[in-house]
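Exam revision sheet. Question 4 asks you to relate a sequence to its structure. Input first:
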Amino acid sequence: MFFRKRDEESEVESMSSKATSVSSGIKGKKRNLTKWYEPFEAPLNPIKRPVFDLTPEQEEKYNHLLSYFETFVTKELPVNDRSGAATHPILESEKAWLTKECFLRYLRASKWKQQTAIKRIEDTLVWRRTFGVTEVPGHTDPKQVITPDLVEHENVTGKHLILGYDNDNRPCLYLRNGYQNTPPSMKQVQHLVFYLERVIQFMPPGQDTLALLIDFKAAPEHLKLSSKFPSLSISKQVLHILQNHYPERLGRGLFTNIPWIGYTFFKVVGPFIDPYTRSKTIYDQPFENFVPQEQLDKEFNGLLDFEYIHEVYWKKMNEVADKKYSVYLDNFRKMGGGIGMSEYDLRGGE
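Answer key, structure tokens:
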């Protein structure tokens, strides 16, 4: 079992509520580190209102898209992508997903081709129902809904983490390849999609992209975990989901501790990555150049002495994400429940 056992429940609670300072030598210097066990709830830098800065032509295309979906949401949508599937009205959560930023992300990803953007958004709505991201009452198999309970076993080693925000207020999603604890399976893909949805909920007002930090360093030997690269089939499926159903979500991708075989792996999967996404990736540069040290682990020359204790981190991460999404939906209802609202306002911006 990968869980770290605690004799006293109160000890876990104290870890969840307190951070302590310790001293450590980093790169020959002694500095005070903060012992840490949880995700951060907010970035260090000030929140900024987004500037959309559209040309008249782009504004016209956006308005056309908005007008189309204002009619679209009055109709019913298939509950999954199978032929002859039943239909169901658009859910509140789906309307709340159809924001101004969402429309603009799909328009940019479609090179401002309106019909392409419309088709992609419709496909994603059905995919979210099919994959279990959106639960359709009376239709979705409860065992297939992507919930914390469904994927928890995948993360008992802390192989995926939401920890801190980068210099541009993007929430940081860490993928720690060396902490792999399960064989390749659909559950791994569901686990990643679960974390994508969670990291989106961690986004502060004014930010709709994430920072993806991938560390290939092996876990300590005593944990006896795998550091194998994902299979090609799993990698292709993940890339397909990212590019088709989470377009324009990657603001920055950082890769570190890449073994020699890793570069071979990148060459193999490279053709499946679109050029624009590839342009956002940075290899073997210090994370401290992009993430405030106050929210960065000592492993990357930060000021945190982060320790993953599953019982502590998992509970807190889900609590914070649920709270943030509850605020999002409450604001959606208060503002009338229509589509095309700004995520800045929905997330609680001034």
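Marking note for examiners. The chain has two domains: 56-144, 148-313.
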